[in-house]
Amino acid sequence: MNRYQLDARNLLCPMPVIRTQDRMAALQSGDILEVRCTDPGAMQDIPTWCRISGHEVLDSRIEDGDVVVTIRAGGPAGSK
Amino acid sequence: MTQARKAVALISGGLDSLLAARLMLDQGIHVEGLNFYTGFCVEGHTHAIRERRRDKPRRNNALWVAEQLGIRLHLIEVVEEYKAIVINPKHGYGANLNPCLDCKGFMVGKARAWMEANDFDFIFTGEVLGQRPNSQRRDALPVVARESGAFDRLLRPLCAKLLAPTLPEREGWVDRDKLLALNGRNRKPQIALAESYGFHGYAQPAGGCCFLTDANYSNRLSDLWATRGSKHYEIDDIMLLKVGRHMRPAPNFKLIIGREEGENNYLGGYRGRFVHMAATSHHGPLVLIEGEPTDADVQLAARLTARFGQGRHADKVTIEVTDPRGGSRLLEVSPLPSNEIPPSWYL
Ligand code: SF4
After folding, report:
1. Which residues 6+ apart lie within 8 Å of A14 measured at CB?
2. Closest C-alpha among A35, A34, A36 to residue A66
3. Which of A67, B277, B292, B325 is the most buried (most CB within 10 A)?
4. pLDDT tens digit string along B153-203?
5. How far is Cα B79 from Cα B41, in angstroms, rounded to an integer?
């Protein structure tokens, strides 16, 4: 299991979701990605994307004004 | 049907593609969605920029649709590739700068490539014959099928019965009898169908799927091309066209005026790239100046900046003018009276 970070700050929706999706595609099942965004919409959109894509949201919070979402990659079918 | 066939759906986030996908799922088809981000999408941006209404959390409609359907959605950014479509559409523009026919051909073409790469069997869309935009005219539908290279692997479940049978129908992958014959601009059948499926809270965008169908937005984009002397754009250009009030007093410069806090914050992100100004003596907008203003132009821009702030009725308003490198100076100006602002300045 590896931990990764993704800086999606200063991107507007849907770009933070697209960056998350593209990054998750390269991760192994069980890997963890922490995404940091400034668009508040990410608080809703990234978890929705995770639900339909088979990934697990471990945590989502506001930190220093940024939206920070922590995701655990699902099984091999979890991303494409 | 002997085997579950796989179909890729173009999911815009609107009602039609939601219903089309639901029809396919009902027929036992494995469905995954594609959603393209061109930079002109109505989704997201404007909502992200404008002050947020806390009681109504905004959402990405395509993701919402995918969750309602329980399907996977692949978001694909096509900003660079899409420029050629907007700048030089083979089939021209619709009522505004919307190159719908080229756009559909492009998106279905992308879906075809995705279908082939992922071993899917066919593509479907939520198109309805005779509905706006005009790319859904009867003579336009075959153009999309042909130019995308999808040919008869492109199914329109909502109006399939009005069209020649496609491969999925002929092969029996889908039952043509259970497809629909929707036609025209009347939205009532879709609304009734949504009701029968129990879909509530779906998006019903007034225009089309993108800003290019908007007359005002198209006017701003035309102005951008005309004053630059060439049809090109960068992503920041087309984003800024969505934000604020745009005023062009002269060909060599224009003002982008924040209309509320959210827009001021967003425009603030461009401070390092534009001459910008804001009142220091009163509350008011952040204003970006695009182009090459002379000193007299800056003076006029300052008077306009004062006009759109709370000092609009004051005798004097102090405006701080800052260049992109951060050097600033103060100007004392009288706000420009509204009767001295020709309507033609508004873009
Ligand atoms: S409205 Fe915009 S996104 Fe939709 S088909 Fe026309 S150009 Fe393409």
Report:
1. A45, B35, B37, B41, B43, B44, B60, B62, B63, B75
2. A36
3. B277
4. 999 999 999 999 999 999 999 999 999 999 988 899 999 999 999 999 888
5. 11
Which of the four pLDDT bands, split at 50, 70 and 90, describes residue A79?
Answer: very low
CB contact under 8 A, B63 and A12: no
The reply to whether B71 touches chain A by the CB within 8 Å rule is yes
- pLDDT per residue as tens digits for the range B276-301: 999 999 999 999 999 999 999 999 99
**Residue with the nearest Cα to atom 7 of ligand 1?**
B100
Domains of chain A from N-terminus onward: 3-72 (3.30.110.40)
Tell me the domains of chain B and their CATH numbers.
6-211 (3.40.50.620), 243-345 (no CATH)
Nearest CA to ligand 1 atom 4: B209
| Ligand 1 pocket test target in B104, B156, B221 with most atoms within 8 Å of CB | B104
Q: Which atom of ligand 1 is nearest the CA belonging to B36?
A: 3
Residues B64 and B70: their CA atoms lie apart, in Å, by 10
A vs B, Cβ pairs < 8 A, gives: 70
pTM: 0.91
Burial class (CB in 10 A: 0-12, 13-18, 19+), B329: exposed
Burial of A28 (0-12, 13-18, 19+ CB in 10 A): exposed
Query: Please, which pLDDT band fits residue B208 given cuts at 50, 70 and 90?
Result: low
* Closest chain A C-alpha to B30 CA, distance in angstroms: 14
One-letter amino acid of B39: G
Query: Which residues on chain A place their C-beta less than 8 Å from a C-beta of chain B?
Result: 10, 12-15, 17-18, 21, 39-41, 44-45, 48-49, 51-53, 80
CB contact under 8 A, A44 and B76: no
